[in-house]
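Progress note, sequence design subtask.
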C-alpha cells in the first residue's frame, strides 16, 4: 500500500514529516514522496530518506493515500483512481469540486469535518492549527503596532500597557489571549458563547459581556448565528470596546457559513490612529468590513491585517502537529494492512 502527498506551492506547511514518515513505514506503508517535499517547512529530503521514505523526481503512480495540508483543488487533479485524498479541503466552499473528484473515483476526506468527540481529539487539525495561528496573530499584530506592549516604568516616565481586544474565544482566541497576557498587555475578550466567559477570565483577561438571555453555542461547541436583536446590542458594546483598544485580534467563525461581520467601517474610523486589527477570518469573508484577504491595508491610520496563513508562518511546528493529527487519522483507517473506512470518524470526513 502506497502513501504520498501533493505539493501546493502556496502552502508552507506539510502533512508528512520525517517523524511521521517513519511511523507510516512501521505500519507497513510504502512512503514515496516528491523531491523537496518538506523544504518549505524546514525538512530536508535526506531526513525523509534516513527514515526509509523514497524521494523521487518522477511521477508517483498507484497511490492509495495522499496526505496534504491544503492542495490546490481542481476537478482535474492527477490522482490515482480509487485513492483517498486526506487534507483540509474547505468542504463548504469546494463542495462541487469535491463531488466531481468523487465521481472520478477519488475519495476526498475533509479533515475539517472530524467530529468533536473525545476519541478524535488526537486527530483534531482545526485545534492544533488554530493554537499556532492564535499565537502568530498576536506576533503579527505586535510587529505592526508602533508602541511597546507591557507596562514600563522608567526614570523618564511610565509607558502604559497596550490594550488588546480578542473577538472570539475559541482555540485561536484563547491562545491569542494567553500570548498577549504573557507579553504584558491588558487583555479583554468577547464571545457569543456563555461558557467562554469563564475560560477568558481564567486566563486573566476581562470579558466584554452583552446583556442577553441568548446562548450562542451549538451542541457541538461551535458558535452559531445570533438574532438581530442580539447583533444590535453586540454592535453597541463592541463599538465602545474598539474605541479603547490598541490592538484587535478577530477570530470569530460560524461553521459552514461566512464569518460574522463584527467590525464595521464606522467602528474602524472610531479607533485611534496607530491601532492594529488582525482579522483571522478573511478566508471565510472576514470579521472586519474593511479587511482584504491576504493583504495588509491602512484605513484612517488603522492597520488591518487579513492574512490567511498565520499557522503557515510557523511552518515547522505547525507541520509537526498537523502531521501527527493526520497520522492518527490514517492509523484508524488501516486494519490488517487494508483500508477500512467504517469508523464513524472516517465516515464523517468522507465527501460523496
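Output:
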Amino acid at each position: 500500500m502506497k502513501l504520498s502527498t501533493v505539493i501546493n506551492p502556496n502552502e508552507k506547511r506539510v502533512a508528512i514529516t520525517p517523524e511521521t514518515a517513519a511511523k507510516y513505514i512501521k505500519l507497513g506503508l510504502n512512503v514515496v514522496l516528491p523531491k523537496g517535499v518538506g523544504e518549505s517547512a524546514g525538512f530536508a529530503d535526506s531526513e525523509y530518506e534516513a527514515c526509509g521514505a523514497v524521494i523521487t523526481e518522477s511521477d508517483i503512480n498507484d497511490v492509495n493515500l495522499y496526505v496534504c495540508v491544503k492542495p490546490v483543488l481542481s476537478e482535474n487533479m492527477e490522482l490515482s483512481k480509487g485513492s483517498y485524498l486526506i487534507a483540509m479541503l474547505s468542504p463548504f466552499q469546494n463542495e462541487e469540486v469535491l463531488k466531481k473528484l468523487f465521481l472520478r473515483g477519488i475519495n476526498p476526506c475533509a479533515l475539517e469535518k472530524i467530529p468533536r468527540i473525545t476519541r478524535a481529539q488526537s486527530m483534531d487539525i482545526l485545534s492544533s492549527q488554530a493554537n499556532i495561528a492564535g499565537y502568530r496573530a498576536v506576533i503579527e499584530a505586535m510587529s505592526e503596532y508602533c508602541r511597546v506592549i507591557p507596562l514600563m516604568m522608567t526614570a523618564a516616565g511610565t509607558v502604559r500597557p497596550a490594550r488588546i481586544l480578542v473577538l472570539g474565544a475559541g482555540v485561536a482566541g484563547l491562545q491569542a489571549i494567553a500570548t498577549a497576557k504573557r507579553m504584558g498587555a491588558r487583555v479583554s475578550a468577547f464571545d457569543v458563547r456563555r461558557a467562554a466567559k469563564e475560560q477568558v477570565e481564567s486566563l486573566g483577561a476581562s470579558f466584554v459581556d452583552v446583556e442577553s438571555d441568548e446562548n450562542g453555542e451549538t451542541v457541538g461547541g461551535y458558535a452559531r448565528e445570533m438574532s438581530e436583536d442580539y447583533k444590535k446590542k453586540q454592535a453597541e458594546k463592541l463599538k465602545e470596546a474598539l474605541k479603547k483598544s490598541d490592538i484587535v485580534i478577530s477570530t470569530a467563525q460560524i461553521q459552514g457559513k461566512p464569518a460574522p461581520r463584527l467590525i464595521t467601517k464606522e467602528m474602524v474610523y472610531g479607533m485611534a490612529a496607530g491601532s492594529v486589527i488582525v482579522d483571522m477570518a478573511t478566508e471565510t469573508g472576514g470579521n472586519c468590513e474593511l479587511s482584504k484577504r491576504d493583504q495588509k491595508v491602512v484605513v484612517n491610520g488603522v492597520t488591518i491585517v487579513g492574512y490567511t496563513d498565520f499557522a503557515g508562518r510557523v511552518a515547522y511546528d505547525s507541520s509537526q502537529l498537523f502531521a501527527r493529527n493526520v497520522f492518527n487519522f490514517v492509523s484508524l483507517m488501516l486494519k490488517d494492512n487494508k483500508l477500512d473506512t467504517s469508523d464513524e470518524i472516517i465516515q464523517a470526513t468522507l465527501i460523496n
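Residues 125-144 form the longest helix (20 residues). Work on this subtask will continue into the next period as scheduled.
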